[in-house]
Specification:
The chain is built from four helices and four strands, in the order βααββαβα. Helices cover about 45% and strands about 30% of the residues. About 20% of the residues are buried. The protein is an alpha+beta fold.
């Protein structure tokens, strides 16, 4: 299943992680662990933020992605299933 993970890192926690050179490593590990085929990084609500798109068939793997980012960076994380246009067309067949 294709998933979209969005995250926000609180400013103070992100600043501390940045001065300790931990933020880049944590995000690189997340991208590698998820095998994300797309990832984007930006500011949201005054916080460092990002979005990743990846495939995952076993929901039991989600804590493996979430926990390190929450523990090391205090990240707020949302994960939702998403469809590409072909998926949507298939889902709408007959409707």
């Amino acid at each position: 299943m294709r998933l979209m993970m969005t995250f926000k890192i609180p400013t103070l926690t992100g600043n501390e992680a940045g001065t300790q050179h931990r933020i880049g490593a944590a995000i690189e590990k997340l991208v590698a662990d998820t095998g994300a085929d797309a990832s984007y990084f930006f500011m949201k609500d005054g916080m460092r933020a990002g979005v990743l798109f990846f495939e995952e068939d076993d929901q039991a793997n989600l804590p493996r992605y979430n926990e390190p980012l929450m523990e090391s960076l205090g990240a707020q994380i949302d994960i939702v299933p998403v469809l590409n246009l072909d998926d949507l067309k298939r889902g709408l067949e007959g409707h």
